[in-house]
TrEMBL record:
Keywords associated with the record: Chaperone
Pfam families: Cpn10
Function in brief: Together with the chaperonin GroEL, plays an essential role in assisting protein folding. The GroEL-GroES system forms a nano-cage that allows encapsulation of the non-native substrate proteins and provides a physical environment optimized to promote and accelerate protein folding. GroES binds to the apical surface of the GroEL ring, thereby capping the opening of the GroEL channel.
Name of the molecule in the record: 10 kDa chaperonin
């Protein structure tokens, strides 16, 4: 299944529950921070003048985001897809 997200939406899948990135430990508590991989991105944000500003995140980027009320989920088989707006991403992991 292929998703085509609109505008500033990003489709990500959850990466293992590994709680360490390099030397940094990611809390696995009530904060619900998820490490994910971007699988699809929208075209960008629409500015007031009608032009489109491209997104910063790219396909295959690893990201951190908080599983909260702005995150939509859709499960296909064993894969859970997360639909997140770029502004709700905490960090890109390099």
């Amino acid at each position: 299944m292929k998703f085509i997200p609109l505008y500033d939406k990003i489709v990500a899948i959850k990466i293992e529950n590994e709680n360490k990135i390099g030397e940094i430990y990611i809390p696995t508590n009530e904060n619900n921070i998820i490490k994910g991989k971007v699988v699809e991105i929208g075209i960008g944000n629409i500015l007031e003048n009608g032009k489109i500003s491209p997104l910063i995140v790219k396909v295959d980027d690893n990201i951190l985001f908080k599983d909260g009320y702005n995150v939509e989920k859709y499960k296909v088989g064993n894969i859970e897809y997360y639909f997140v707006k770029e502004k709700d991403i905490i960090s890109i992991i390099k």
